[in-house]
Amino acid sequence: MNKPIMAKATAVWLVDNTTLTFKQVADFCGLHELEVQGIADGDVAQGVKGFDPIANNQLTQEEIDKAEKDPLHALKLKFNAAAVGEEKRRGPRYTPLSKRQDRPAAILWLVKFHPELSDGQISKLVGTTKPTIQSIRERTHWNISNIQPVDPVALGLTKQSELDAAVQKANEKKAKEGGVMSDDERRKLVSTEQSLGMPDEPKMPTAISGLETFTLSDNDDDEKEEDKFDADTLFNLPDNDDDDEDEKS
Questions:
Q1: Other Cβ atoms closer than 10 A to 170
Q2: Among 175, 151, 177, which residue's Cα sits nearest to residue 162?
Q3: Cβ distance 39 to 12 under 8 Å?
Q4: How does residue 110 score in pLDDT terms, banded at 50, 70 and 90?
Q5: 125 within 8 A of 163, measured Cβ to Cβ
Q6: Where are the alpha helices (DSSP H) in 140-201?
Q7: How would you class 49 by CB atoms within 10 Å of its CB: exposed for 0-12, middle for 13-18, buried for 19 or more?
Q8: What pLDDT was estimated at residue 195?
Q9: N or C: which terminus of the chain has fewer CB atoms within 10 Å of its end residue's CB?
Q10: Which residues, 6+ apart, have CB-to-CB distance to 97 below 8 Å?
């Protein structure tokens, strides 16, 4: 359901000038019922001037009269042919001024860790232009030496769900094209939750490569080998009887 422009100001006007229930006003303006009650009590929207939805071609008096007679009737926004398709307008995402300086770091992170994303997808995620993305891909950006990759979700430039959806879409597109992906690429193309749930592949440390079949002998065999040797066999000491005979002679 479409919402009226200046929703809170419209709610102030409806509370002051009609007998509509709080729920009717809240549903029409996209607010919480308690918030509308706060407007009526003077705790919310103090100093906000009411916005007349009838004079501004958002409601008709007949629709308000019908809703006042039936508390279960939901107000319907007046059809405006000029507003058709306004919500579907496409364009780069608006980025607040305070976060625009973080966009190059976010672009570099997406280019580095998700190279499967197209320039159009990155543009929608962080609200930038394709020439900027291309300059960072080719490392021709004027400040490329000082840019460090930072997760755009951590910077607040996009939501994790939006990033996962874009990655999943890139995954499906690449699968349709029949491209062969490595394990690392396949891990990057899945959502974050799926990636974190994957078990780590066991890897042999490079320092001991080539010793996969090396085994140590059993302890029992070592003990048996040790039993074969004693002090006499090692040093070939003479018997005591020979010493006694030499002393007698």
A1: 18
A2: 151
A3: yes
A4: very high
A5: yes
A6: 152-155, 160-177, 183-189, 192-197
A7: exposed
A8: 47
A9: C
A10: none
What pTM does this model have?
Answer: 0.41
What is the chain's mean pLDDT, rounded? 76
| CA angle 216–220–224, rounded 5-degree value | 115
Residue 151 to residue 179: CA distance in whole angstroms: 27
DSSP secondary structure letter of residue 190: S
> CA 99 to CA 153: how far, in whole Å?
12
Q: What is the mean pLDDT of residues 5-13?
A: 89
Q: What is the mean pLDDT of residues 57-64?
A: 90
Residue position matching structure tokens 């308000």: 64
Within 18-157, where are the H helices? 22-29, 33-41, 61-69, 103-113, 119-126, 130-137, 152-155
- Collect all residues with Cβ–Cβ distance below 8 Å to 160 and sequence separation of at least 6: 153, 192
Mean local confidence (pLDDT), 18-22: 92
What CA–CA distance (Å, rounded) separates 141 from 107? 11
Determine if residue 18 is left, alpha or beta; phi over 0 gives left, psi from -120 to 50 gives alpha, anything else beta: beta
* Other beta carbons within 10 Å of 126: 27
> Where does residue 119 rank: exposed (0-12), middle (13-18), buried (19+ CB within 10 A)?
middle
Say how far apart CA 9 and CA 17 lie, in whole Å.
12
Query: Cα(145)–Cα(130) distance, rounded to whole angstroms?
Result: 20
- Which pLDDT value is given to residue 3? 78
Burial of 54 (0-12, 13-18, 19+ CB in 10 A): middle
Contact 193, 161 (CB under 8 A): no
